[in-house]
Amino acid sequence: MKVQQILAAIGVTVALSQVAHAGTTFDNVKKRGVVQCGVSTDLPGFAYTDSKGEWQGLDVDTCRAIAAAMFGDAKKSKIVPLTTQARFTALQSGEVDVLTRNTTQTMSRDTTLGLIGVGVNYYDSLGLMVKSSLGVKSAKELNDAAICVLPGTTTELNLADWFRGQGMKFKPVVLDRYDEIVRAFAAGRCDAITADKSVLGATRRNLGGAGEYTILPETLSKEPLGPMVRQGDEQWFNTIRWTLNALLETEEYGITQANVDEMLKNPNPNIQRILGVNPGMGKNLGVDDKWAYNIVKQLGNYSEIYERTLGMKSALQLERGLNALYTRGGIMYGTPIR
């Protein structure tokens, strides 16, 4: 047999081997009939329980959107609250199928954990907050300050990097849960608290408002947040990835929960592909052609989810900022469904 034939045979064998091992998570989720999603233990706007004990938030609705794409039913989702320390182990072990928990996408997480980031559903940045009575106006005034921080997070690492870069020192007060950090901060155990600025905004509102607490102007790091899955299952990766894209594409084309049925009649070929009027896109994913229709019909597009969880219809009232569509001054940009 010629060398070229041998190499070709090896290539076919490898390809077949890859196909044989692909789709494990996707198939298991499909067989189980429920998507298991890891979320934060209690984080306003992202994952929290309301007065009725029901889970709400951007990350919770991301999980429900995946279920709607997979099964046509957003309720076929199981929410699993996880601490920062437990989240990666839970995904690695198969306790959950996907982390929709606010998790920063980084190179080391993609290359050392056997996991991979799927995409970004919220662009954030790291900040610091102090009591206004402290009189501090800049993070550069916090040399030797005690700062409350969660362990095992990019927050902890980026805080240390920023202080080192400024030639400053700080005293970390490490606590396992964010609610414990807030209580410690309010009780005076630390001079400052560090978290994503969206989280600090929610915390300040809950503690008493801008008059009592000051979010310092410095941005300590970029925090692109989004779902993570285990490596080695491209079909499952694609399911999550295209769920995120569908939320953005439907917003861009003006497809909403209220008008999605009427939009089925729209002659725009892009809209017809997104909503499954023109068949084939769902089949390529291994789901029903109405997968994106089901997401929007049950949950709305990205804008609708954002506004009720983080935006002006929520208690947090956070502006879209970077999380607006690229057509409206932000950097959210859906990949075409075609």
Question: Would you write up a description of this structure?
Answer:
With 338 residues, this protein is an alpha/beta fold. Helix content is 41%, strand content 16%. It is built from 14 helices and 13 strands. The strands form four sheets. Strands 7, 8, 9, 10, 11 and 12 form a six-stranded mixed sheet that branches. The protein has a three-stranded parallel sheet with strand order 4-1-5. A two-stranded antiparallel sheet has the order 2-3. β8, α6 and β9 form a beta-alpha-beta unit. α3 packs across α9 and α3 runs antiparallel to α13. It starts with a helix and ends in a 29-residue tail after the last helix.
Element layout with pairings:
Elements: H1 3-21, H2 24-32, E1 35-39, E2 48-49, E3 55-56, H3 58-71, E4 77-81, H4 87-93, E5 98-99, H5 107-112, E6 115-117, E7 122-131, E8 145-149, H6 154-165, E9 170-174, H7 178-186, E10 192-196, H8 197-207, E11 213-215, E12 221-225, E13 228-230, H9 234-252, H10 260-263, H11 269-274, H12 281-285, H13 291-299, H14 302-309
